[in-house]
Amino acid sequence: MTTIASGTDTLTRDALTVLQPGFTGTTAPDWLLRRLGEGLASVGLFGRNIASPEQLAALTAQLRAERDDVLVAIDEEGGDVTRLEVRTGSSFPGNHALGAVDDVELTREVAFELGRRLAACGVNLNWAPSADVNSNPANPVIGVRSFGPDTALVARHTAAYVTGLQSAGVAACTKHFPGHGDTAVDSHHALPRIDAALDVLSDRELSPFRAAIAAGTRAMMSAHIVVPALDPDHPATLSRPVLTELLRGDLGYSGLIVTDGMEMQAIAATYGIERGSVLAIAAGADAICVGGGLADDETVRRLRDALIAAVRSGELPEERLAEAAERVRELARWTATAAPATEGEGRTDVGLVAARRALRTTGAADFTPLTEAPYVAAFTPVANIAVGDETPWGVAAELTRLLPGTETGSFAGQDAGSEALGAAGDRRVVAVVRDEHRHPWMATALDTLLAARPDTVVVEMGVPQAPPRGALHIATHGAARVCGRAAAEVIAGE
Questions:
Q1: How far apart are CA 199 and CA 202, in angstroms?
Q2: Which of 180, 188, 224, 477 is an active site residue?
Q3: Is 98 left (phi over 0), alpha (psi -120 to 50) or beta?
Q4: Which of 141, 201, 257, 390 is deepest in the core (most CB within 10 A)?
Q5: Among this protein's residues, is 366 annotated catalytic?
């Protein structure tokens, strides 16, 4: 183990140990390496930190040269939320596609292969899978990140995903406890509320988390949501009844509890990140995730000092902070002894196999595959923060490969349909949408397009909640690169 700087006292080391900060750049800054020497035990990676697998492996090696047992975490769900392939789109479909196939062995295999690639780059903690039951179709932040709206399906696939990921030597962090599926508010922007009765919560929201615990998930991430039936006064991340009494007590969970990003507005705008972090640790959280938006040494210093001050004032028991820090170290020990995956295990193309199986087509019996380059009209909604707007999506790139000369444009707003028609000219139109049911302007655009061009092919790359329409309708159940490829193969008859 790395020798901690001799001038760092136990309280300071523990306060640093419970932080999971981010940073900017593709190499570790000096301040981060210095904090690792002082007791920081975890680092969170985002798309901005990753240029290639080789660069990522060099980065994690640089971190481990400073502290050999560091936890290197990443938000890599596959599907729409990818950091490993942030600039190209993911080689793996996300949860909703896997739920549509409903083959738990396939889900386990996808998670294993994803974990194998992470482990090969030196990443040993993944903030995934999402175990949220997408029971509210209007949900703006979960959607295709969920295995689906059926509790039993979500539970069995959550367990399979945890098993697959951890068999590759990467710790799973099941999220977002106690369940973010029944919300119409994005906690990146505001504080959501779930007004469900206790029996509904137990049967619906909590079942997948029970399954994850039974599967041995090494970590669990809290949600920034208020659930009045559990705690009317605090969001789950800051709630002792939720984290300690329910998760630890009633559900018997003994692993690491990580908060969702503390700079998200559900916490930052209501409590502030310092106060929020103190309350989270006091409530039973063990690790503070911060760094998606605030990624500098000043943030680490502020949170460290807030935790130390709370202990010294008596607001935060020193024993609780020490317990939290020990759970972080315990997970680090597990990652050091977990058997890494070998190159010969699994199928490297399992992501594409899964994406093809997840397709649902309507009108295929009467559809003649395209032989000439079409015009791809992408009706593009504003991306939520979890997904981000860096990652390309759609079918244009893959159709261009199969049908050279394919052209594309992106459209939004009330005139999107007529603008797309004008841009397409005489070409056959392929319209690509994402959650048509949540965007009235998108439905209007399709109305306009199909009235003028009924031979339009429609590809839905979000949750296929709206009725299928078009000469051919393809539901991909997600916008990963492999989902676009699978849809393009059908359109071009490959």
A1: 5
A2: 188
A3: alpha
A4: 257
A5: no
Residues in the chain: 494
Dist. CA 440–CA 438, nearest whole Å: 7
Q: What is the pLDDT of residues 244-276, one digit of tens each?
A: 999 999 999 999 999 999 988 888 888 999 999
19: CB partners within 8 A, 6+ apart: 40, 42, 287, 288, 290, 300, 303, 304
Judge whether 14 counts as a catalytic residue. no
* Cα-based angle 307, 232, 196 (whole degrees, multiple of 5): 125
Query: Which one is catalytic: 14, 132, 260, 286?
Result: 260
Residue 200: both structure tokens together = 């509904």
| Sheet strands (E) in 283-406 | 288-289, 360-362, 375-379
Give yes or no for a contact between 172 and 126, defined as CB atoms under 8 angstroms apart.
yes
Q: Which residue has the tokens 């940073």?
A: 23
Q: Where do we find the tokens 């039973």? A: 284
Q: Which residue has the tokens 């098993």?
A: 163
| Nearest alpha-carbon partner for 352 in 494, 461, 485, 464 | 485
CA distances, 258 to each of 128, 326, 409 (Å): 12, 13, 40
CA 464 from centre of chain: 20
* pTM for this model (two decimals): 0.94
Tens of pLDDT, residues 36-53: 999 999 999 999 999 999
